[in-house]
Amino acid sequence: MTAAGLAIPSTLTPSGRTHAVPYLRDYFAPVTSAAGYTGSRFERLGGGGDRPAVAYQFTPEDLVAVTLLSVEVPGRAALEILERRRSRLHELLRQIPTDLDLVDVEPDAIRPEWAPWRLETELRSIPGLGPTTVSKLLPRKRPRLIPVYDSVVQELVQPIGGFWASLNAALRADDRALQRHLVDLREESGIGEDISPLRVFDVVAWRTGKDSIARTSAGAINLHSPGADN
Q1: pTM (2 d.p.)
Q2: In whole angstroms, how far apart are CA 213 and each of 9, 69, 160, 222?
Q3: Residue environment code for 65-99, b if the CB has 16+ CB neighbours within 10 A, otherwise e
Q4: What pLDDT is recorded for position 191?
């Protein structure tokens, strides 16, 4: 299904909840030394990056948190964030509310002058920080407003234009049907109200994309195996 310039996977439609709910429960199951998704601790590590005590500054905890999503902040970039650009990043974070949801943002606001956009631009100007790492640093500070984004999700949803604007439009479409569905999935899966609807979208989309990649890879292997059909 395509909504407002975004391809919505079937797992994120009402008919796909039988897949989405197990995806969420599995992803947010407790992490052990040998099993579980470390990403399930991304927003919760240390009490969260948007908690009042640290909401307007990047901390070492934030840099550790992004490693739970399989990216790393190089040492020199870490020093830029924590020391050299600390004041500038603090100034930008002060302009971004902690209680604002992406669905509540007016579409016309999402432009280069928007504070989150300016913060992204500042972070991406730091040598060693690529778009994927930045796309995970931002949600650590504002999980309700900025979605986690990576190549798996990009390939699956194929946004037309910027991802933030496309997702904002999709969430607001049809009297906010997708937003309400994400909240319902969160409640049905029992993962906790501290997990934002944006993160529900990300986890289900990411798991859907990863499963699709695995099936494609398995098919390619089978195609070239002895005895496989042509």
Answers
A1: 0.91
A2: 14, 18, 22, 14
A3: bbebbebebeeebbebbbeebeeebeebbeebebe
A4: 98
